[in-house]
Every structure is written in C-alpha cells, then in structure tokens.
Amino acid sequence: MRLSLCVIAKNEEENLPRLLSSVRGVVDEIVLVDTGSTDRTVEVGREFGARVFSFPWTGDFSEARNFSLDQATGDWILFLDADEELVEGEGERLRKLLEEGVADAYSLVIVNFVGEREGIDAVLHSSVRVFRNRPEYRFRGRIHEQIVLSIQEHGGRIEFTDIKINHYGYLSGLVRGKKKISRNLALLERAVRESPRDPFNRYNLGVEYLRQRDFAAALREFQAAFRYLPSLAVSYASVLVRNIVLCLVALGCYDEALKVLADAKEAYPDYTDLLYCEGCVYLNQGDLERARASFEECLARGESASHHITQRGVGSYLAWCSLGQLEEQKGNFEVAKSAYARALECHPKFYPALARLTSLLLRSTSPEEALRELLSHLNLEDEEACLIAAHIFASQGHHEQALELLDEALRRHPSSSRLCFARGGMLLQLRRYAEAAEALSAVSPSSQVYPLALLNRVLALTLGGDLAGASQALETLPEEHALARRLYRAWLDRLAGEESLPALLPGEEEEAKETLLELLGRLLALEAFDEFERALPLFFFLPEPPRRLELGKLYFRHGFAELAAEEIIAAVRGGARDAEGFAILGKVAAEKGFHEEAVVFYRQALEEGKGDFSWYTALIKELTFLGRYAEAAEVVKEGLKVFPQNELLQSLLPLLQKMGTSAEVKGSARGEGRSLN
C-alpha cells in the first residue's frame, strides 16, 4: 500500500516545514503543486523530497487540487493544506487503517485553532481527507472544494475516524498576514453570483462575513443557505443553524434566536453546541436560572457528536466557565471559583477561565490572599498562564503581586525573554527604574519583544537619571526601528538641554505620531511630568487642530478629563471634527453635571460617526435625565436605522413614547390649572 500526500501551495515557506515534518515516515510520496510562489516554497518542498509541479492560478481551487491528483502515483490520497499538520502519533494509526482498506474514503477530525494562538480555543469538524486514488474521484467547487460528491456518486463507502489534523490557518495573525479573508470573500461572492441557489456557497459566504463580524450580511447568507438546503441531514446543516443563532444574538435578537434554537434542538438532539448557545442567550437576557439549566445539561450530555462542526468545550470547560460567570453575577463567589477551577481542570490552557478566576479572587479578597489562592490553581510551568495572571494583577494596580508571580515563573524559566520583559514592565510601573533596566537587559535580541524591551529600558534608564546609559542602549535598537531611535534620541537631547527637533522624512508622519503617543502615554502613566513636557514639542510636527485632538484623547485615556476637554475644544475651534472627540466631551460634561452640554456633544458625535452604539445610549440617557422623552424616542428611531434588530432599542421606543405622552398630559393639565387661576 502506497500513500501519496497532495498539497497545493503559494508562498507557504513558513508553514510547509511543519506540515511536511508531520508526515515524514507516514506517506510514500509528496506531490506539491505550486500556484505561483515568490518565496522559498518550491525549495522547501524539494528539501523534503517532494515532487514539485507548477500550475498557474485560475481562481479555482478544484482545478489545482485535481491537477495534484493527476500527478499522484499512490494507492491512496491524503490531501492537506500547508497550514495543517498530521497530529503526532496519528500517522501509524492512519497507515494501519489503510492497510485494512475496508472503505473507499475516510473522514478525519480537523482541529481548527482560533483566536490569537493555538491550543486555547478550537472548532472541530470532520472532513474527508483520505480516499482511494481513482480517476473518477475528483474535486468540485471554485472554493471550499469538495471530494465527497464524486465519491458518493460512484458508490464509494465513507467512514468516520477520530484521527486528527491540526489547522492553524484561522489564527488571527495568519489570517491577517495572508489576507485570506479578502481572497475567500471575492471567490465566494463570484461563486454565489454564478450559482445563487447553491446552499453550500451561500453558507461559506456567510462564514466569511461572520469572520469579518458583519453579522447582518452573514445572517442574510445563512438564511438563504437554509432556504435552499436539500435536507436537514446535509453535513453542514446543523452548524448553519447554529451560525444563524450566533448572528441573531450578535444583533440583539434574543427572542428570535430562542425560537430558532427550540426547533434546532429537536432536529439535532446530539448537538450540544445548540444547548450552549441557548444558555448564552439566557445569560445575555439575565434569565440566570434557565441559563444554569442549559449549561448543566451541556455538562450532562458532554461534547457534540463528532459528525457535527462543533466548538470544542461546549460539553466541558466552556459550560463550566459560563456557570462561573452566572454564579459570579448572582454573588455566589465561592461557587463561581469552583466552576472556574473545574474549567481549568478540563482544559488547563483555557485562559479565559484563568482570567475570570484571577479577577474574581481580586474582587473577593486581598491581593495577597488572591495570589496565594491562585497559585493553588496555576501551572507555573505555563508561561502564558503566568503572564495572563500577572497582567490582571497589574491592570488592577497590584504590581507587587504581579512581580511576585513573575519571579516564581522565572525560577522555572530563567531565560524566558517574555517573562523578563513583563518583569521589567512591572518594575517600571513600580518606579524601581534601576531594577527595571537590569531586568529588561536580559531580553534576548532574537526575541520578538526585544525592540519594545529596549525602548522600555531606555525609558527606565532615563527616568532613573542615567542619560548616558539610556543613550548607549538606544544605539543598539535594530535598524528597522530607525525612526523610533531618532525620536527617542531627540527626547534625550532635549532632556540634556538641547532644543533641536528631528526632521521627518516624507511618509514618516503616521509612524512618528504613534511612537510619540506611546512615549507620551507612558510618561503620563508614570507621572513623569517634567520628562513629558520635554517630549511634547516633538509632537509639534502635526498641525495644531489634529495635534490637540490627539493630545485630548491621550489625556482622557490617562484620567486627565479637564485637560482632555480643553485640548479637544481647542481642536474643534480650530476646525477639527471628530466623533470620538465629541463623545469624550459628552462624557466629561455628563460627569460634571452639565447635561444640556452633554446632549449637544453626543449629538455632534453621532453626526460625525453613527457606528458607535454606546453614543446612542448615552444620548438617550441624558435626554431622559432631562425629561425630554420625545427627543429621546427620536434618537432611538435614529439608532434603529443603524441597528435595526437591536432589542434594547426596540424595547426602549414604546417606553419612551409612553413617558413622553404622559409628560405632555401632565404639562397640559398644569397649564389648564394655571388658566383657571
């Protein structure tokens, strides 16, 4: 029995080694079809012994896939993408399965890592990835190409297995880097135009909109896909219904979501994801008892059946974490702690549960006791867990405990650049500048955090009074950060008494603005006001109105509300029009009790940008406080034009209209009373 791996790739030099290493000793042949790479994809493939073929990209994945099948000589085909890997230890199981050869194709479990990094959160689905090498088995579909239909049409037998493949392509960084969403969107929109009644294309287009958080567009496509489904037994039908629910929830349509779920649970009783969604809807509605019942039922049932596309953890750690949130809302802190701990037992790397447990401990006890209790749940060998917990302590002002936690982690990982960087940041916040500089010097130049660590070290040395050391450290900043080096150099020169300002090259303005805002923000946070004043003129390359607008926003973020208002008002007088700036003025005015002025500012914010829901609710709140119910109702109507399915606005409208009518009646009665006198 010979097994051929078929891969199509373009500019995948970073991913290919992981994939090809994972199948070493498992496959007998590697067929790599390159669709136009400009990096080392072809060379990497050849280094692993692949037979490499070129194929011009035609905008159709099936054509490229089928070309790869034409080149394969094995008895069986395994097809994988470059951003996937066969999980360690699964190769032997796969070969044994194929040696027995009782079926014509096998469905494997794809573990799709999502979020910022692998191992934390994942969506699981089954997909046919192994099949006999027969000329009648060919792919169909311009994108999200399928092999199943051709296998079924020719009487092929398909079996499910629990052999796993890891997929890294949905991790946030990879998606952004490859512009994968834009590519997929264009291909799918074309496919939908060509076949508007194809439910699979409509479903996949909805998925792309969902990934872009365009919930209204996603809902439209999902509902169209559902209308055209040939049967509820289609492999993606259950997740299609779940996605409809997710969109309805995101749009605030909780009652409609519950109606969909009621029918869906009957159709798919082994799909725990639906119960989990139901619990989340009830939680959003504040119906804690029904939410509890749903999450407890999730735990009783366990994970969804393997033939569904499922969110990993709905029958375990996700349900436990949601129960923790529920108990926390009810004030049952001890029960909530236990629930979060159970979530971590199920999945030690489920960091949202760790973050909630840490925050809850800080809410319910002293920082010292919170740290002691957390250490009983925390795996100090897990760098990421230690960094997350330390960040939460620091974000709530408990830098000493954060530092203690990092010191414990560094005893186990003394050479970790990330831990050294975090420790230096804590010491900097504690204004222990010499110690901060020393800690930051331990960050390796090869680390991703090295440039920022070096700038933090320059900051620590400067605020510690060692300008010469800061100047020397600055010179080691990598060349790709030359602009930051020039700006920090100018700041150090100004602290030394010089008054010169750096000249910016064309196109450097935006990067210079971001670099200086970061520096100015750090100085404000450390209350290094003299150093802030010396750095401020470096920002004067911006024209006055936008400069004062940016400074106003910076002051507001760091708690200097009056200074923020002064700068933003000056910017507005200079001609700047900015929605966020007006919203800040509205918040400042409201906090000071100037409600009439707050109304004016919030109205201006909405005139400049109608996308922020919180500005509508803030304006409605101010108008209601002033008893201007009819105006508040009009704002609700305007909000519903932007957020047409939002249930909060829908519920507010009749209430405000009733209050407005009541106020008019009372006013009329008072007026009649006065006329009689």
TrEMBL record:
Record SMART domains: TPR
Keyword line: TPR repeat, Transferase
Keyword NADP set for record: no
Ranges for the TPR repeats: 199-232, 317-350, 383-416
A GO molecular-function descriptor: transferase activity
Domain Glycosyltransferase 2-like, first and last residues per copy: 4-132
Protein name: Glycosyl transferase family 2
